[in-house]
Amino acid sequence: MNLFRMTMLAAFALGSSAVVCANAGPGAQRQTELLHLLRHDCGSCHGMRLEGGLGPPLTPPALRRLSNEQIVATILHGRPGTPMPPWRPFLSPSEAQWLAMQLKQGVSR
Amino acid sequence: MKQLLLTLMLMLPTMAQAECLTRGTGDMGIIIERASGSVLVIDTSAHKVLFRVKGLGDLSHASAVFSRDERYAYVFGRDGGLSKIDILCGALDKRVIQGGNSIGGAISQDGKLIAVSNYVPGGVKVFSAADLSLVADIPATATAKGKGSKTVGLVDAPGQRFVFSLYDTGEIWILDMKQPGKPALTKFTGIGRLPYDGLVTPNGRYYISGLFGEDGLALLDLWHPEKGVTRILDHYGKGEQQLPVYKMPHLEGWAVAGNQAFLPAVGHHEVLVVNTSDWKESGRIAVHGQPIFVMARPDGRQLWVNFAFPDNDTLQIIDSETLKIIKTLKSGKGTLHMEFTPRGEEVWVSVRDKDEIQIYDTQSLTLKTRFKAEKPSGIFFTNRAHQTGL
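^ Those are the sequences you sent over. The predicted structure of the assembly is below.
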């Protein structure tokens, strides 16, 4: 019984992690929220169209030299010595990963 | 036949201006709709939208100044667009793309010049208020990367001057435009790291830059520029952990009540109180979040404060005499800007995520009415036309 339960639990855990990997990112509603955050809150320094302001532009050409991992690290931890704050309190690593992908591809206006 | 012609001729001028209003503009203003590149022209007495003017480009973080006859609004867009709007006709009078990426502007003391502050390329450009033709181009100091420093905190000052700060290179410049063909610059270097915004006191005497990169603020006495820039409040923030800043505060709304001035503290949940006779800190007020705008009601009795992300759903009202918070209002997410009617009986508040303007009674501190606007941000009333620094 106990063994059966553990097996079931393990199977469930494996199953759900597989689901997470397959989706690899936030759900549709959260995606909308993240794009809103990007446009309006990141946008207060980087420009609503992400073409730069007090902060640098976040357009695909501007980000070409950076890897996704570097962008994720900047989003989550900020850049000490500059006004870029850490967004970790508001974003999970997978959400930051998703945002980095959007930025690299170019976010539609 | 003759009579018909005469009637037609008399009607022509009326017909030509059929869409324009015939009225004073003292109780009018504009509201920026940041995401749709449009501006609402409003009537502050009737609480009514009169016109929506479209086609103004990227208006995120846009601001505006008014001509001294209060008929035209000059709107500074993020995409470098400078638009002159006729608020009586609800029409775009003239529009130029003057830079790549800009951040606000100012109108000269005599109302004849419009200066625009640019991030890209860094520097300030000065235009004729009449036809937006270029009068002067003032490039900023080049940074180590070879680009011009971003310019911020551009204001007008008495004596046909403009004053602004250079973000990347830590400078304050005075631009004297008394002779439009011969712009004269006075430069102050090493004023502090990363000045992010600036303001001028309502009498036009003191220019102050907020510093992001270090503690305190940089002060320049425009009556005595020869005395140079001094640091004020340099102990504030010392030895304290600054919180992450999710939006830079604005210094444009200079809040003065009696001999006290009120400023947003960067990276702290505090409003700083400064004695304007000696520029020493005289107190701090703990508030709900990191303040963005600290605005005094025109009579100076109240201060209205809004906040940075993630606390931007709240407004707090402070009694300037007791320095106590007398009310906390949940206006809604994206509470971005406030503007008082000229004598302060109302304050208009833009709430971006609710797509609405809320109008509060400043005596009872209650909501009077609200109306729809698309992602509203800055609110600017025509009485700014006659105020230095606005």
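The CA atoms of residues 98 and 349 of chain B lie 30 Å apart. Chain B has one helix and 32 strands.

Shout if you want it in another format.
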